[in-house]
Every structure is written in structure tokens, then in C-alpha cells.
């Protein structure tokens, strides 16, 4: 069956595996957590978390991942042969004024 939302809040050294979620996977105020999606999630939110590993399924590998005030974030993306590619999410950004608005990109160190 499907659930509306999954939230890990203030968890330490916790792992969760789930199939489908209707709204989102939220990881908040956590340390050293893992989450694995075997079906679909439309969005992943990671906030105030240090040490997070998210395994995406083939069906949701294009889901947006929104991060704030977090570090040591890795996303495992399926390659199609049953294996995963580990991708680190940037922790540091640089914002520059382009004459109309600020443009924000990961720094060279974070990329």
C-alpha cells in the first residue's frame, strides 16, 4: 500500500526502506540515516541533517531533492544493471549578482 508522507525527525543511526509515498520523504534534524525508495516518491526533503544516504529507485531517480542546512549527503542512483552510482550533494554555494538577480551555484570545492 501507499502512505501519504514519511518523516524521519531527530533520528540517529536509523534506516528505513519503503515502496511508495504519495507526498514526500522528509529527513529533518537527523544524524547518520539511510532511506531507500523501492517505488516512487515525488520529492525528497533533507533539512538540518548530518550524514544522510538516500537510495532512489529507477522510477523516482528524477525526483527533486531539496536540501537546507545539511552536510554529508549522498544519493545512490540506479545504473540499470542492479548497481548504484553514489553522488554527493553539494554543501557549499556561491551567489553572484548578474545585474538583475543573484545566481547561486555550488562552489568548486563542493562540486
Briefly summarize what is shown.
With 111 residues, the protein is mainly β. It has strands spanning 2-9, 12-18, 20-28, 31-37, 44-47, 50-55, 65-68, 71-78, 84-88, 93-97, 102-106.
Could you list some keywords that capture this structure?
single chain, mainly beta, 4-stranded parallel sheet
| Strand elements, count | 11
In this structure, how is the largest beta sheet organized?
5 strands, mixed
Helix-and-strand structural type: mainly beta
Helix content: under 10%
If strands are numbered along the chain, what order do they take across the biggest sheet? Answer: 2-4-6-8-9
**Percent of residues in beta strands:** over 45%
- What is the number of helical segments per DSSP (H or I, 4+ residues)? 0
Spell out the helices and strands N to C. EEEEEEEEEEE
The CA-CA distance between the termini, in Å, is: 38 Å
Radius of gyration: 15 Å
- Low-confidence region ranges: none
Q: So what's the overall shape?
A: globular
Write up this protein.
The chain is an all-beta fold. The protein is built from no helices and 11 strands. A 5-stranded mixed β-sheet has the order 2-4-6-8-9, with no helix packed on it. A 4-stranded parallel β-sheet has the order 1-3-5-7, with no helix packed on it. A hairpin with a 5-residue loop joins β8 (71-78) and β9. The model has no long low-confidence stretch (mean pLDDT 94).
